[in-house]
Amino acid sequence: MLTTRVIPCLDVAGGRVVKGVNFQDLADQGDPVELAARYASQGADELTFLDVTATVEGADTILEVVERCAEQVFIPLTVGGGVRTVADVSRLLAHGADKVGVNSAAIARPEVVDEISAAFGAQVLVVSLDVLRSTDTPSGFEVTTHGGRRRTGIDAIGWAAEVDRRGAGELLVNSIDADGTKAGFDLELIRAVRDATGVPVVASGGAGGPEHFAPAVDAGADAVLAASIFHSQQCTIDDVKAAMRAAGKTVR
Question: Which residues catalyse the reaction (predicted)?
Fold first, then answer.
């Protein structure tokens, strides 16, 4: 039986871990390497590292931070932010990433999904969707780019199905509406993506306590990702896994 992965997320800006609410008002949370080591020791199944200002500022992902994390943390590391080409993916993999996330670049040129998947295999490619609720799309969900700052008019559920067809190995589904609110994952969004795609879905945005994770799995998530509750030490990864086991979920 497949186990549900628990994944801490490290949003990084200027070489520091940050966190806000609804992708706004980012506050310093600490050193990414120190936090990565803490979460690995607590039993994290993977880590996701997102350079949240790389696309906005046109900067390259911070390779030095990625490399330092990879040297000290021996669980899979997904890295995203500012990834635009096959060459960017190659560079990140060479610096210690196991998987690479793409978001804004895929919206700008969907063919990059096909190219990365063909070059490295679907297992390397995570397509990230930053999603807002919207009355302007058929599903009621819209994809945004540039860290949630730009609306696209693209239906999020249709886009999830398209990148699945193009060769994405996994979808990281971020609810901007739920992000940082600690009110729970957007279960309707998770169900809609799950129904439209066949690849693993990572649910992100809204976790406020250990009790919020099992419902996301019930809604169709293969992995659950959170930041605020781990950074603040409100709860540990062990706490989350214990709550999931109590709810009948299989975790490591």
Answer: 11, 130
